[in-house]
Hints:
- It is a single chain.
- By secondary structure, this protein is mainly alpha-helical.
- The protein has helices spanning 3-15, 40-53, 61-74, 79-86, 91-98, and strands at 26-27, 33-34.
- The two termini are 40 Å apart.
Amino acid sequence: MPNWVKTAIDEWTTAAKIKTGRLLRCVNKTGSIWGEGVTEKVIWCLVREFAAKANLQRLAPHDLRRTCARLCYEAGGELEQIQFLLGHVSVQTTERYLGCKQRLREAVNDKIGLEPMGRSPDT
């Protein structure tokens, strides 16, 4: 997590006096916390509201999840990290989700420079 994100979350939880539990919570009209978290319906309503403001048609929360995963992958994120982020049980599920495969021809351990004496990496 980038430091600026951690700082923002710490400031938010301090201001909201949140010591345990979920970060996102419903707040009633008087400004009091209501319940223990937000429901799927609340997320849908928020996505619909802000999609309309951005003039985006037919946007669902799952579209945002998939976009986040794709952006992480395109930025060089490892499949295992994205698997953890998405909560997938196996990396194969993440591969199918992203429509990609692990780069086995360019395995990370091929680049650590531990070749036997007198042998080049291409032989």
